[in-house]
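## retry 2 of 3
previous attempt timed out at serialization; input unchanged, resubmitting
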Amino acid sequence: MGFSSSKSDISLFTRFTTTDTLFLLIYVDDILVTGNSKNLVQDFIQRLSYVFALKDLGTETQGLRLYSSSSYFVVGFSDSNWATDLDDRKSTSSYCIYVGRNLISWSSKKQKVVSRSSTEVEYRSVAAALANII
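## retry succeeded, writing output
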């Protein structure tokens, strides 16, 4: 079908032509298909349905919406709250990553260790965001 595997994610496959782009993300028994042409995506899903039993769980009003953009800069934001859990004094780190104006990744979780300062908490949060970007 002309797809190439991604070097950064083993579950991501891409197909680029001079006019169209198609992305295929496979995770266990879930498949996400998107591209720059609605007809191309629908045609690909139709071709898959000839071989596999498919169930379409998405609609145009559900799911993660991706927008066309003239800028594809990767931008990350991080934040943390120092020692907010009164029981174990662990901090919470959170971050979100954008490509252009599209949110592509986010996280908010309690840190595994107790940090000694708010600076250490912020550093851990930035490190987690940067690891996700790379």
